[in-house]
Write a structure and sequence with these properties.
Blueprint: H1 2-17, E1 36-44, H2 49-64, E2 68-77, E3 83-90, H3 93-105, H4 107-118, E4 121-131, E5 145-153, H5 158-174, E6 179-188, E7 193-200, H6 203-214, H7 217-226, E8 230-240
Helix pairs in contact: 2-4, 5-7
């Protein structure tokens, strides 16, 4: 009995002394906020891109009457073209349900946009994301181009890779190589996925900043730490539409 009690005491002591694994991705007030962002991607028929965008431009007020549009872009580079990407903000899941129900009953929206445009779409994708707790959504002060960088991290969640990822992002921002719009963590879709939305004045200024950052030992060190948890990554260059709130 004494030996058993001694063993339990040692085990408890070891547990108390073990380093606690946590991450700023999983703490902070924003994590308890129900607000989320839906990423929607539409793959359009090649000859119908302009028709689709013109129709949306004319009728956008019918859609934004129901929920807030954060940004709307066409994809210039990265993966399949003839594609549009847009972000919508919701207070919580109940709010989104009410919006979808209202849209289903909105005859003007159905007749002027939805029905005519369904034939122009090849494929649709939806992903639900949260802003990470250490980031707030920023609006650039002038027009430019956007880069959506998507990182597929190793299983284990933010408790495993969140701090290293945060340091890599902040190193780029603090050294002025690019402007951060937002960092989003996927809730529904591919898990362990993080999207970083960057802003630059132009594709050329983005390229110049990227080349300079690759030669900066501070960036190299931060990225080298984060990449240990990385499985894959991809990016898209996004051009804001004329009706996008984020220009």
């Amino acid at each position: 009995m004494l030996a058993l009690r001694s063993g339990l005491t040692r085990a408890l002591a070891a547990r108390m002394l073990a380093p606690q694994v946590y991450s700023s991705f999983a703490t902070g007030p924003r994590q308890y906020d129900g607000t989320f962002y839906e990423f929607r991607t539409y793959y359009l028929k090649p000859s119908k891109m302009n028709e689709f965008l013109e129709n949306f431009k004319k009728n956008i007020h019918l859609r934004t009457a129901h929920s807030e549009l954060i940004g709307y872009w066409s994809v210039e580079f990265g993966g399949r073209v003839n594609k549009v990407f847009h972000i919508w903000k919701y207070d919580n899941f109940a709010h989104r349900t009410k919006v979808r129900q209202a849209l289903a009953k909105d005859k003007e929206w159905q007749e002027r946009f939805l029905i005519p445009n369904l034939a122009l779409i090849d494929k649709q994708e939806s992903e639900i994301t949260y802003l990470v707790p250490w980031c707030k959504l920023e609006k650039p002060s002038k027009e430019g181009v956007y880069e959506l960088a998507t990182f597929q991290m190793k299983p284990g969640g933010p408790a495993l890779w969140g701090d290293a990822f945060k340091r890599a992002v902040h190193t780029h921002v603090n050294l002025g190589y690019t402007k951060l719009v937002g960092v989003f963590h996927t809730e529904y879709g591919e898990l362990n996925r993080v999207h970083v939305l960057w802003w630059n004045e132009s594709a050329d200024s983005r390229a110049a900043g990227r080349h300079r950052s690759h030669e900066d030992p501070r960036v190299v060190a931060a990225v080298r730490e984060s990449v240990n948890f990385l499985e894959s990554q991809q990016n898209m260059l996004l051009i804001p539409t004329s009706f996008s709130p984020l220009k």
